[in-house]
Amino acid sequence: MVSIVKIKNFILSPLIKWVIKHPGIMGSKLFLKAMIIFPSKISKTYDERMVDGGQDLHKAMDQGLRRIFNKPQKIIDLCTGTGFASLEVAKVFPMSSIDAIDQITEMLDIARKKARKRGIQNIVFKVANAAKLNYKDNEFDLVVTSNAPIYLSEAVRVLRPGGLLLAVYSFGGEVFLRLNAEVDQYFNKNGIELLEIKRIGNGAYALGQKFKNQGGMDNANI
Ligand SMILES: C[S@@+](CC[C@H](N)C(=O)[O-])C[C@H]1O[C@@H](n2cnc3c(N)ncnc32)[C@H](O)[C@@H]1O
């Protein structure tokens, strides 16, 4: 019997490929509107719904964070939703200062409650649009994002040269591996060297490093 994962991958593969090949779509009004309407409808039940994808997301985040080698002090979590990535990052880098942004207030309210309950004080949750960030260039040592579109041009702009980008997914692991060359090309065009894509269960993580010089591929591999 064909598994749900195979069906999901069959549907996701062309979709992910399409977004990677036409990243401009992410700046379009229609895309941004869809990114508001859908998450705001599911915000209250989001954490319950995530139970299925949760295991692979946790594992992928855990393994991805072990690969962070630059001792980040300033970190931003793009599209934090109910705070999954920022809360995991805060455990691993308790001395860092973390900004976690999303455009849905209800999601951020849940994230704030979770942080308070866990006694985490180094995350500031803010309403913001990941496609148009209100931060200076080169502010952050690490950009993380999980289960969300990668708003790559803004992520790269706010990363300092040599800074790291970690994108983590609970789905599409097989798809991302198959699209390794396309992701590599997409990252490169935007000033990021792809260091690693790793499949974890049904999920995956991708780790990249912003070019240290404008010239390009000059980063030491891990
Ligand atoms: C599937 S949820 C993932 C949430 C969280 N990162 C996680 O792993 O559970 C996707 C999130 O991306 C946010 N998002 C999508 N586009 C965004 C944008 N342009 N600016 C800010 N947040 C955005 C949505 O509001 C939603 O909370």
Describe this protein with a few key phrases.
222 residues, alpha/beta, 7-stranded mixed beta sheet, 9 helices, 7 strands, globular, binds S-adenosylmethionine
Write the layout of secondary structure elements.
Blueprint: H1 4-21, H2 29-42, H3 46-49, H4 51-66, E1 74-78, H5 84-92, E2 97-102, H6 105-117, E3 123-127, E4 140-146, H7 152-158, E5 159-169, H8 173-178, H9 180-189, E6 192-200, E7 203-210
This protein binds S-adenosylmethionine.
* CATH topology (fold) name: Rossmann fold
Distance between the termini: 40 Å
What characterizes the major β-sheet? 7 strands, mixed
How many distinct domains? Answer: 1
Small molecules bound: S-adenosylmethionine
How many DSSP E strands?
A: 7
- Read across the widest sheet, the strand sequence of neighbours is 3-2-1-4-5-7-6
Give the overall silhouette: globular
Please estimate the helix content: 40-55%
Report on the architecture of this protein.
The chain has 222 residues and is an alpha/beta fold. It has one domain: 3-Layer(aba) Sandwich (Rossmann fold). Helices cover 44% and strands 23% of the residues. The chain is built from nine helices and seven strands. The chain has helices spanning 4-21, 29-42, 46-49, 51-66, 84-92, 105-117, 152-158, 173-178, 180-189; strands spanning 74-78, 97-102, 123-127, 140-146, 159-169, 192-200, 203-210. A seven-stranded mixed β-sheet has the order 3-2-1-4-5-7-6, sandwiched between helices. S-adenosylmethionine (SAM) is lined by residues 32, 35, 39, 79-82, 84-85, 102-104, 107, 129-131, 146-149. Residues 32, 35, 39, 79-82, 84-85, 102-104, 107, 129-131, 146-149 line the site of S-adenosylmethionine (SAM).
